[in-house]
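Comment thread on ticket #2218

A.B. wrote:
> Attaching the input chain for the structure job we discussed in standup.
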Amino acid sequence: MTTLELAEFVQATDYEDLSPDVRDALKRRVLDSVGIAVAAEVADPTQVVFETVRDLETDGACTLWGRDGDGASPVQAAMHNTALTRYLDYMDSFLAPNETPHPSDNVGAVVAAGEYADRSGEDLLAGLAVAYEIQGELAWNAPVRDRGFDHVTHTVVSAAAGASKLLGLDLEETRNAIGIAGTAHNALRVTRTGGINEWKGIASANAARNAVYSAMLAKNGMEGPRDLFEGQKGWQDVISGAFDVDLTPGERVHDAMTKRYVAETYAQSAVEGVIELAEREDLDPDDIAGVKLETFAGAKLIIGGGEGNRYEIDNRAQADHSLPYMLAAALIDRDLSLEQYEPDRIRREDVQELLRIVDVSEDSELTERFENGEMPAVIDVTTDDGTTYRIEKEAFHGHPLDPIGWEGLEAKFDAIAGEHLEDDRRDELVETIRTLEDQDVADLTALLE
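C.D. wrote:
> Ran it. Output below, let me know if you need it in another format.
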């Protein structure tokens, strides 16, 4: 894998190279991201990002989504808008055996670069295809989690590539942008271990900002390491190890899943399963003696206790990375949406007591099944009278094995954005995104002010 190889892929990929299925899938990724962003505008951490952007800039060519006409540079817009698409932990995920990044983290950066450069919707789709493909290939072939790096280490590279496409950089400028981004901005895994805090939901926004800044530097003549990946003490030597990629015009977008529930990626099947079990057996939470989840290695590691205590839950950032909390809340409420992450709900006695009798264990067979493309979960709920109820899942609705189409995504969009946008604005956004190849990037961002 060489830095030139990535830059050549960016240069070679245009809208005409994308299959109709890839174009459609990318548009659905945009709709999902926009809906999540609208709902995240009122969150305290995203407000902190907005206030910081306002402290640094008072005007600019790019729209700050949801901020009533406020503008900023593409760099700061990428930070702000990515914070919105990412913070609620409701975004898409790419499922690789040893890494699970969120390729929608690229959307804010690529849109900002496209708005700044006055690009078309076709250009935007090409840039998103580039970013999704690179993010997926890095996750699959060069996982960094076990080496102590966060998955946004991939994002800064993929977003820099997508931004370079929209900014119209030539081959050497693109190579420089990727070199700067990947050399200077490698994030540590400590973001998601131990006592998790709100930076978890903002780290990818920081990566998106750094990606666009790297591309802007390259656009204006800054040279970067030409051998980011292959050079001595470069990315492969220090971070990932040697690897190769097989780049296609955006086909990796089909490996991105849509979250059905507001929960960490690896929890989706388990949450869906416990809700189905609670409804099927009409379980009374007061009668539960124990909950046992058998899951795969990654879920146990990240949200089941392998990277820190997942039973001491006091805030949103801890709750959406705790299988015990998510299963307890879903069993009690028979839902796991934004309401289950309100501070009062998190701290309520019923869920705090139930989460402590949730046992999470890894099953090697389930790990093998996950590595072969499923997201399996086996859940046993035992009641006070000794009866045990079981449900087994191989995937969830939204997984690539059971994808959510336009109808489901529009329903999700209406559910999370409904209280923030009038019906006609939602309808206009959906139609603009559905026909993105006939629009300009500015047509989309004008609806996000």
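A.B. wrote:
> Thanks. Noting for the ticket: The chain has a mean pLDDT of 96.
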